[in-house]
Design brief:
By secondary structure, this protein is mostly beta strands. It is built from 2 helices and 34 strands. The termini are far apart.
Length: 463
Amino acid sequence: YGSGKADRCDEEGWTLMPDQTILTCDALNAPQTEKLVLSTAQWISAGSTPQSLEDASSEELGPMVLRPNGTVFAMGATGHNAVYTPGSTPGATGSWTAAPDFPSVPFNGQPMPLDIADGPACLLPSGNVICQTSPGVYNTPSHFFEFDGSSLTEVSDVPNSLDDPSYVGDMLMLPTGQVLYTDQSQDVEVYTPTGSPQAAWRPAVSECPAVLAPGMSFILQGTQLNGLSQCSAYGDDSTNATNYPLVQITNTATGHVQYARTHDHSTMAVATGSATVSTHVDLPTNLETGAATLRVVTNGIASNPVSVTIATKIVKGTVTLQNYSVSPNGVAVKLQIRHVGSTTALDSQSVVLDSSGSFQMATTLAAGTYDIAVKGAHWLREKLGSKAIGSSGLSGLQFSLVNGDINGDNTVSLADFAILKQAYGSTAGQSNWNPNADLDGNGSVGLSDFGILKVRYGQSGNP
């Protein structure tokens, strides 16, 4: 992929960087390194490692792991290691510094450096990197080390270490923060590290329904849902990246832990910072009901808990956002369930629409007949009257919301024109930008937004 690659990709591992580039150490052109700038699909130089990391005879390399501080620990098949620090822009070369060498061990009566001529490494929740080494190329025994950014510390071996070269190992980060290890035998090991993550490294949930139900699907939003790294790495023969969110639900009464299926993540980028990202969540059909806590876990690091209630009824429907030129995916609307004829909400929740405008909302209300209303940020409220919610809920609701309510007072009036006038000509990031004035969702406030207001002027939504 991309143009300008200096050599072939065989034997190389690729590391996804926060600046939307991919870093690799060249196997044929060692000690040169390269990175792919995704925005231009161009390969450019990333400088050279202080010493070659490639074993010249086998062309093998070790794994590379992005750490929380933005540097990459690159492990060599020569006993040498290096640390990459990216530049200030994707197009900048960045720089390499030497990392501590792996120690030597006796081999056939002579000292031989440990190295990783193919083999696993994994980022731990503490920010350390655990890796498996062995002497030379494809030799035994194995030794395991943790790298803390400045020094290597040997840790305990696995039962088969005496017979294992590094290339047979594989590591996967578990949601518990432990590392699952296999060596192509029937033995499976779990490594429990010490230390804990910094608070700033945790994923955070910003939008999640307070009431859920077995079998329900919804969109969860938050920050750093993909973690700060791909986490697990190898030379070039295995991929166990975990830069995606897991949703964990713990029942308060029983303590049982269940996991939901997540899919269609809004991004696979790492270290996304304060940007809002999302994932689709499908809850298991056997989810235990009652009070529970929900956490997002990425790379073994859990978010702070969110209190939820697991009910049994799901209200399903679709919302058409009139005069909206982009996908409704990720747009939040407020859904209310009321007594028939009342304007007081019995249950009021924010739900996030998917790409087809569909939503699901769980409720603890008793079965019965209710009015159901939906209001968008700059759309008028629409109410559907006398809808029967059964023992399992209600499906098939269809709403079509009128656009133009910039100030959210449920009426399109002169006040909305005044706000649009102030934001006119702006785009996101400018001082006068107002996302509610971008009625058509095209990323700028312009004539098309004015046209929507003009057509909808004087209209009001249902109370």
